[in-house]
Amino acid sequence: MVHYLAKCKEFLMKSILKNTFNRDILTLLVVSVLIGSVVASSISYGANAYFSKTLASLVGDYGEYDLLIQVREEMKADSAIQIQKIIDDTLQGARLKEGPTLTGKTNFFIALPEQYKTKQVYENLGKIFGSIPGGAGAGVLTEPRLTIRGVPDGAKNTLIQQIQQMEGVRFVFRDGASIGVVMTSLDKTPAVNAQIKDILNSYQVLEISFPVGAEPANPIRLGEAIADDMQSQSKVEFAQNVSIDGKNDDMTYMVSTMMELKRFLLAYASQVNIHPTAGFKFTKGDMIAFQGSAEIQPVAGNALQRGNVLVQISGVGSNGIAEGAIIQGDAALLTNNQGFKIDNNLIGDYVGTITYRNPRQQLGSALTETSKLVEQIPGFAQDTKSMSQIALNTLDSYGSSIGAIEQTMQNMQAAGNTIQAAASGLANIDTSAVQNQLDSSSKAMGGLVNTLQVVRLVSPDAGAAADNLTGTQRSLVQLKSGLNSLDRVAADARQAKNTIDRVVATGNSTLDSLRSFDIAGARSNLYSTNERLVQLQQLNVPLITTQLQYMAAAAPNLKDEDISHSVALLDKFIAGQVIPGQRIQILTTSKISTDAIAPIVYKQVGHTNVSLYSSALGVIEPNTRSEVYQLLNEVKAILAGMAAIIVTILFLVLDHTAVMTVARRKRLATKVKVRGWQGTLARMAITFTAPERQYGMVVGAVLLTAIFFFSGGGIPYLPWIGVPFIGALLGLVIANYAEKISPISGEEVMAGEALGMSFDEIMREIVIPSARPGLLQKMNSRKVNFK
Fold it and tell me: Angle CA(357)–CA(359)–CA(364) in degrees, nearest 5?
């Protein structure tokens, strides 16, 4: 390091500070950089000034004008008068300037006073300038301004309110399909731009697309239902249906009502199915004719008759059965179910049979039956009220009934106890021993009677005793029979006691259930029922019946052809007024994916034949004028860069080729020829190490880099690090042709050396004066002694 600094110091002392040719070269480089920078800058600034002036002549200077009115060229005279009249009436103080005419349209520029640069004025430009003849269009030129496009109509108010709160924002307005943001000053643009990008990135728009033919009947309500479900089921912080423009509430409500009316009509249109004949296939849009009220059945080749019923096919199922809508006539006229295809307004072949369901007839029948039912309401209410009163009376005697049951249970319990007592006394009597004794006594009496019978044969007086004894025996037998009856009575008493106990137990359980019955609640309910029955009796049943009969009579009067034409007319009104039926847009946070809400959408839509997409809330549209100025700045930098390259080449060719030639001659004079591979390596190395080439590369890199820097040059896709390399490459190429570009006289140089001239003297007195005319020759002219 010390050695390097010492050499630099020696170089400065010998080559720079002293009056040497090296100092001349250094001075030349400084002067060349200055001149080259001035030339390159002048070219680039001149071109930029020219293009800027041209642009300003077309659209005015930056911020000079606020509005641009374009009118047809042939109407520009009348338009100018009308624009000036509008300015005098509505925008007093505004300045009007006619601009150039491009592609058949004349441009008028208007500079507005500050008091008219408001959101209200900018959002009503269409109304303010709507009276200009020739179909003029009004645009905004106010600067500084940002434009946001792609924002759904229903999300514009939300976004405008948030942007309006930003520092540096003057006002925000609706600019057609976009949102315009006018700022207080140009230096606020980057900050506002960054904040708007943050807001746009915090939201996303989920789009639900429906295929043709599967559009929802009311996309407005469907979108609101999906947004509600997203918040309740998916716990999404924010979800809003933005498919419609929230600003135009009246139109939204009107169209929503029309959609509901359309859905109502379609719900009561006859549902028609046509079963094709063998081999025939229906196509959507086919027209099928039926006899209807015509006198004869359709005949192939004939024209349609006035009373024919026409059905237009709206869809074909996988089984070939077609669905359609009656566009002429009514389903009630379909007495003949044979259909014929219509080709070129003529009846064609028989193609199928029709079946239908007429909801209007069903509705009329239901209303008729309902009106009959309503007529029965007073009688039904009165009967119910009577039954309720009976129930109340029953509840009133409920307590006494329970008391009677309780008394009965008590009596039965007492009877049971009595029977128990009697049965217990009988049970204590042992009749078996008495019966045995009676049997023995009876047998003994029987033997004694036999004996007396024998004795009576010998003694007639014994007959009376035998008869008495026989009577006694008979009494004993009767007594035994009585004892048996007494045993049976005791058994029956015990059985009766058990039966009474079971009855009493069951009765007590029943009493417990009866006691638990809520008599007060039942009585309250009956009173409430009575009150409602009273209210029901107070209904204006005749009025309801009349209205039901009216609706029943009116419903059938709505014919299918009336419904079809009404729906077609509603479609004409609805089309273009709100969102297309094929798309619903939900504004939500950026934290939920389409897969997460897909089940909710499928549930609300009722099928899965929809597509879900996610897109940004909007994008900041580059300002056309700013883009043009940015392009001009890029052109300016390119011109400066190209001019720097050309100037560098000129300086290298005119001023430095003589120096390179001398260096080359000195190198060749001391060159030692080397053969073989060493010679090849030496020749390859000399490509970049030759003194004249090193000089050319260094000078070229220094010149081009410095001129690039001071002139503000720039070339697309060329980084700054590449500029010195290009300069070195230019110097290397020119060094290779230096002797051809600026040849020197070897004899004169040798003569100068023979005369003892130094290198500086040879360069100043011999080489430079005979070199190409340039700055170096001009600067050297005052140092030449041998003129």
Answer: 125
